[in-house]
Amino acid sequence: MVYLFLADGFEEIEALTVVDLCRRSGIEINTVGVGREAIRGSHGILVQSDIRDSDISLSDKLDMIVLPGGMPGTKNLEAADSVQKAIDYCVLNNKMIAAICAAPSILGHRGLLKGHRALCYAGFENQLEGAQISDGTVCVSGNFITSKGPGTAIDFSLKIVEILKTKEISDALSASLLYKL
Questions:
Q1: Residue 32 bridge partners (DSSP)
Q2: CB within 8 A of 67, min separation 6: which ones?
Q3: Does 101 participate in catalysis according to the annotation?
Q4: What architecture does CATH give domain 2-102+153-170?
Q5: Which of 22, 101, 120, 139 is catalytic?
């Protein structure tokens, strides 16, 4: 089970690409609306989340949480107690946390990326406290998956599929999308 958190001002490409590719791969993923079910993205697209943050269950069934970027979505995610509690649960229980664009700053502000390689949107590097800024489009370090932004959303999503399923499934999905021909 994956929870992808949505807060007002989220980056639509980053969030919905992950949901789409996970569902195509048979990964159970729920969008989680912070504070309510209908959440408006940074470009005005209204998305009906699957559940509210008050309805999540932090249990052994949870494999990963995903934090999309966008502004002010990232700030709204960081301010949400439910998101902070989910991060705490994942850290304490050796679960994966995936964050893209500005959202890795949430982890950086908490010092969770110290000693890890990480990526983020250009200009946010100084907010990844103690992280070694990596190259490429997606970085996996320990239980963290980070990526740069909207243009890397497919790479980010395919890496999530690879981690939760297999590289073969991720590669087959990439081919079915006609991605990187």
A1: 5, 51
A2: 5, 74, 77, 83, 97, 98, 99, 100, 103, 106
A3: yes
A4: 3-Layer(aba) Sandwich (3.40)
A5: 101
Q: What are the residue ranges of helices labelled H in 46-165?
A: 73-79, 81-92, 104-109, 153-164
Cα-based distances in Å from 15 to 126, 129, 150, 156, 166: 24, 24, 9, 10, 21
Q: Give the integer Cα–Cα distance in Å for 14 and 11.
A: 6
Residue 169 burial by Cβ neighbours in a 10 Å radius (0-12, 13-18, 19+): middle
Mean pLDDT by 10 residues, the chain (181 residues): 98 98 98 98 98 96 98 98 98 98 98 98 96 97 98 98 98 96 62
What are the extents of the domains in the chain? 2-102+153-170
Residue 117 to residue 16: CA distance in whole angstroms: 25
